[in-house]
Amino acid sequence: MSPPSDDEFENMPPSENVDDVPTVSCSRCNREWNLDYELDELKLGNQSVEQFALDHRRHTGHFPDDVTPWVATCRQCPDGEQFLSEGAARRWARTHARHTTHEVTLEHAGEATILNAE
Ligand SMILES: [Zn+2]
Ligand SMILES: [Zn+2]
């Protein structure tokens, strides 16, 4: 049993969804991007939109259109973060509450939940 060679990897069918390069637009920047760089250079596949959104926020301070982030905001101190997945946001909130005993509000698509320290 040998591990697959590079040739075999190259012969594997390309991942799905590549025919149709996804695009992301941002009304704040008034620009639109296609994600061929994320797909071809970074090999991110289905995560390319998510990665683009995180990169966009890292470099511009805001998310592009059609992204609904999970927003964790501490009710007692200026700390807070935005995430694209509920799991990551809850982990942040729980960790912050655990270490500081602060209450953290978790908001997503207009719904807010308050997390307490246990
Ligand atoms: Zn933008
Ligand atoms: Zn806090």
Relevant terms:
34% helix; alpha+beta; 23% strand; four-stranded antiparallel β-sheet; two-stranded antiparallel sheet; 6 strands; 2 domains; 118 residues; single chain; 4 helices; binds zinc ion
Assign the structural class, choosing from mainly alpha, mainly beta, alpha/beta, alpha+beta, or little secondary structure: alpha+beta
The geometry reads as elongated
Number of helices: 4
First-to-last CA distance: 50 Å
Mean pLDDT: 85
Which strand order does the major sheet show?
4-3-5-6
- Helical content band: 25-40%
Helix-strand string: HEEHHEEHEE
Major sheet, described briefly? 4 strands, antiparallel
Number of DSSP-assigned strands: 6
Q: What does the radius of gyration come to?
A: 19 Å
Count of individual domains: 2
Spans of at least 5 consecutive residues whose pLDDT stays below 50 are none
Report the bound ligands by name, code or SMILES: zinc ion
Residue share in β-strands: 15-25%
